[in-house]
Specification:
alpha/beta; Aspartate Aminotransferase, domain 1; Aspartate Aminotransferase, domain 2; 13 helices; 15 strands; globular
């Protein structure tokens, strides 16, 4: 490999949310990688800092062209420049869309279990969460199509958030599934908000389907959100892009982003993002391979040493979803017990709702040595929990 993903980077005492833990603890919870980003991104940032002047910036066409070229190369999909607009983040943009394009009291449809930040984003803005829960059987999730249409048809339902690919399960929606969801949403006049922040993080042999790449009849009713933040470990850049093929809808979206003050870039956002999208292809390829290897280590270890837990086959993200239903139906208690006993800090599935009370989510975007350490702790913690 050209890039050293085995390097141990010490992130303690760096204001890292992930690593704000006790000395004996190993954090494998929040969606944040322990790898240094693409070298060309660092070079672009250094050039910006070395200039020594930090005045207001606009978003140049070069930024949007880098995104267009990225999607053309990686996904054979070429979004039009006039579809794209900048914001400082995916979740702040979703909150803005909800505030300005739906009404207080509306239903925002989700498919649980789902990314936990969506919940307070909806309720804090005075809207209601409506759940069309994913069916679960034999380690697989699937859409309950009848329930989905019933929920979409409710007059108070005005928007649906799709996590594409799905967090926390790592499932990649097929073009057929997304088209069916989009068709039902259009039929019932429900706007689609597609969070695609994990789209680049597919495992080797898999690729996700950008919602905006579907048929125009489907995408005309949609807003997709992408960002280099998860892909290249650049969360603090606060850079994201919205893809809105409908010009009238884009105008409303941009007005909301402007009102909320999240449409202007920070000091390092533009050139750092451009460098990531221009030079990050090979880095990402190697990252996917490294995470895939960590997934295999996880599967093999759990199968051999913790038979009470099942690792779901994750097609995307660097997050693994662990079925602990043979151990507990209270994953919050289980996760806290493991942390207290062993220092391993993983995310309990309870916060993702749905059947998450029987799951743990573990972050594999760290060195192989830390993954192996974490698995030994998980084994010890599970054994102690079962014997308590």
């Amino acid at each position: 490999m050209a890039y050293d993903f085995d390097k141990l980077n010490d992130r303690r005492k760096t204001n890292s949310i992930k690593w704000d833990v006790e000395e004996n603890e190993l954090p494998m919870w929040v969606a944040d990688m322990d790898f240094q980003t693409v070298p060309e991104v660092l070079e672009a940032m250094h050039a910006d800092v070395d200039r020594g002047i930090f005045g207001y910036q606009y978003v140049p066409d070069e930024y949007y062209q880098a995104i267009i070229n990225w999607y053309k190369t990686e996904y054979n999909f070429e979004p039009k420049m006039e579809w794209l607009t900048f914001s400082t983040g995916v979740v702040p943009s979703i909150a803005s869309i909800i505030r300005h394009l739906t009404d207080v009291g509306d239903n925002i449809l989700l498919q649980e279990p789902n990314y936990n930040s969506f919940y307070h984003t909806i309720t804090d803005n005075g809207r209601h969460i409506l759940n069309s829960e994913l069916d679960y059987s034999d380690g697989k999730y699937a859409v309950n199509w009848q329930d989905l249409e019933d929920k979409l048809s409710e007059v108070e339902t005005t928007a649906m958030i799709i996590c594409n690919p799905h967090n926390p399960t790592g499932y990649i929606w097929s073009a057929e599934e997304l088209t069916k969801i989009g068709s039902l949403a259009k039929k019932h006049h429900v706007m689609i908000i597609s969070d695609e922040i994990h789209g680049d993080l597919t495992m080797p042999g898999f690729s996700y389907v950008p919602f905006a790449s579907l048929d125009k009849e489907i995408t005309d009713n949609s807003i997709s959100l992408v960002s280099p933040s998860k892909t290249f470990n650049l969360a603090v850049l606060h850079a994201a892009t919205l893809i809105v093929p409908n010009a009238a809808l884009l105008t409303r979206v941009e007005r909301g982003l402007s009102i909320d003050g999240i449409s202007s870039p920070g000091a390092l956002a533009i050139n750092g993002s451009i460098a990531a999208y221009k030079y990050g292809h090979e880095w990402l390829k190697e990252l996917r391979e490294y995470i895939s290897n960590n997934r295999q280590i996880l599967r093999n270890f759990v199968k051999a040493n913790i038979p009470e837990i099942t690792v779901l086959d994750g097609e995307a993200t660097y997050l693994a979803w662990l079925d602990c239903s043979k151990v507990t139906d209270n994953s919050e208690e289980f996760a806290q017990f493991v942390r207290d006993q062993t220092g391993l800090y993983v995310a309990d599935g309870e916060k993702y709702k749905g059947n998450g009370n029987q799951f743990l989510r573990i972050n594999l975007a760290t060195t192989k040595s830390r993954v192996e350490d974490g698995l030994k702790r998980l084994k010890a913690g599970t054994k102690a929990y079962l014997n308590k």
